[in-house]
Amino acid sequence: MNLTARIHQIFSQITGQHLPACISALFILLFLLILNSIWLAFAGSHTPFALFIQIALVILVFISITYIALNNQKQLASNNQQQHKAQKILYNITTSVNAGRELKELLSIFCKKCYQELRAENASVWLITENDWLEYIAGAGIDPKIVSQPRRIKITQELASTLTGNQIIHENQHVTRLAEILQCDISDDSRSWYLPLHYQNRTLGVVRIKLNLQPLSNQQDLYELLSSLANQLSNAIEKARLDQESRRMIIMQERSMIANELHDSLAQTLASLRFQVRVLDETLQPTSEFQSIKGIEQVENSLDEAYSDLRELIAHCRTPIDKQGLMPAVEKLVSRLRKETGMYILLQKEWENSDLPPNLEMHIFRIVQEAMNNIRKHSQAQNVHLIFRCDEDGNHQILIENDGRGFETPTASDHPGKHVGLSIMQERANYLGGDLRIESEPDEGTRIELYFTYSSETDHDPLQRLSEIIS
Question: 365 Cβ partners below 8 Å, 6+ apart?
């Protein structure tokens, strides 16, 4: 590098970092030029020297103005280039995110694109659950072994205030706790940026991005880029919620329509047949033979059972779980069975740590409902014990025991149409990612145990957990 280029580089650094000082120096030169002009008018014998200084000052002023103008133009071009780069990054990330259909997929794509486009060390998204937990949902650049188990933090008052009162958070002890949970290196957390997710004055969660290098040289451009990313992701989460709610309402409407059609058609027909058979039975009682009466009674019992099954199917089509959640629905089921059967049913609840989304609660309720209906129909039990347990690590256990007559547990050689209800219970347990165990012997009662661990890393849609917060 020659001397001229070296001087140009040094001067560029000085003017780039201290532009106000350069402008001040220019005003000083102009002031000196004015003073020298006055001196030149009265210089007398020193006129040549004063003229030389005048020319030198004019040249310096011209050079200063030219250089400041060029530097300003260069800075403007650099800013435009940085803004174009920021817009390109924002476009690449948002277009990829909009391609995601389900929230889990959407958030995973967001983290992956942030990791790539921003050349980050890692990126993660945390969402708020209805029980005031901030739970890890998706990430990129994080060891999969670390996030194989549920990662979440209880929202304290300080953390809630931090997330609510800020748009972009940089170096904050409350949110740094998120990095500790993911076992990330927090020794240099000054490179980490935390982006709270807000939608219409509601806090949905937070995004954590740890940068290797600044993707944009201008700090303000980086701030605006991250703010735009947070806003776009918040809108995408809300859109996913609305889409999911719309799909859920369509399914509920279809199920209700099927239930109504069954009630208005087949149920009415069966009810009419039951009445006709009962009238026929009463008419033939005085004159008919024993075998004929016995046959009619069997038909009557079959119709009663078919009608009862149809009523259960209609109730099954109508969603039994309202916004109050799983436990109120189970309590309502237990109360109804107590009145109908006279069985002693003990319900034991240790369910405070559970924060399951409604779609998983529905599968659990169906398993419990099928088990209780089987007890009512077949067991002849006097005592039933229901236990619901959930610990702080998300381990869920549901136990249903009765002292009825029991049955021989199904084997692989059984006919496919046999024990259909038990097969459906097993399929629901598989959907939960859990284990369903059925232990029974003739005259020894039955024990049904469902065990599963709820984790945000399962394939179930985590958006369900936002229902209470968002609504």
Answer: 320, 321, 326, 329, 330, 333
